[in-house]
Amino acid sequence: STPTMKLIVLGLPRTGTQSLAEALAILGISPVYHMRDVAKNKHQDLWVAAIDAKFEGKGDPWTRKGFDKILAGYEAVADFPAAIFPEELIAAYPEASIILTTRTTDSWQASMLSTLWHHHSRQPDDDPSPLATLRRKYHGHCWGNDLPANGRRFFDEHNERTRKAAEAAVAESKAAGEGESGSGRKFLELTVGAGWGPLCEFLGVPVPDVSYPRSDDWVQYKATVAKENETAAGPA
């Protein structure tokens, strides 16, 4: 039987989503759909279609039927591009608990500037590959292709919108009496660096006997950027 969607993680990239995905796997929630699964499954065009429907009015807004083409078989979903669809995913998977991963706005902006934005702003505009098309779409629709100017505002608005949608979903579940049986919807806001405690309590599982994962596909990239910056600055 197909796994049920247990958890939707709606924090933006650079809020610990990759470490969280690995933590969930340790806790037995797996597989988790993450940004790296997009290219692996050749899902770029599907996500572009979802973004086009949401932001450009092309086709009907996506519902579970559409998202299932991408997410069927996954027990959780995190990171971009999924995080662009908080309201839609909350509505599409009413059985799933909701996590918003977050951090301070300034630390998020700084992290984005040295990773996703640094990379994107140095790519040619005419790369026709599906992944480049998807990348241009989300940088365009999220912060008007200008993260330095508009990133902070988008981050704050995204988190506020997600909180609202999640809290409304929890309230709706309570009103339907689902909370009584313990099966009601739950929402957790998880700050980067919070470790196992809040997550395990939220999921009702014991804290495992291993360190909380610290994963970041961008570590090497950030080191290279830091080196470039040092060289550019010249001797101290």
Automatic annotation (TrEMBL):
<dbReference type="InterPro" id="IPR040632">
    <property type="entry name" value="Sulfotransfer_4"/>
</dbReference>
<dbReference type="InterPro" id="IPR027417">
    <property type="entry name" value="P-loop_NTPase"/>
</dbReference>
<dbReference type="Pfam" id="PF17784">
    <property type="entry name" value="Sulfotransfer_4"/>
</dbReference>
<protein>
    <recommendedName>
        <fullName>NAD dependent epimerase/dehydratase</fullName>
    </recommendedName>
</protein>
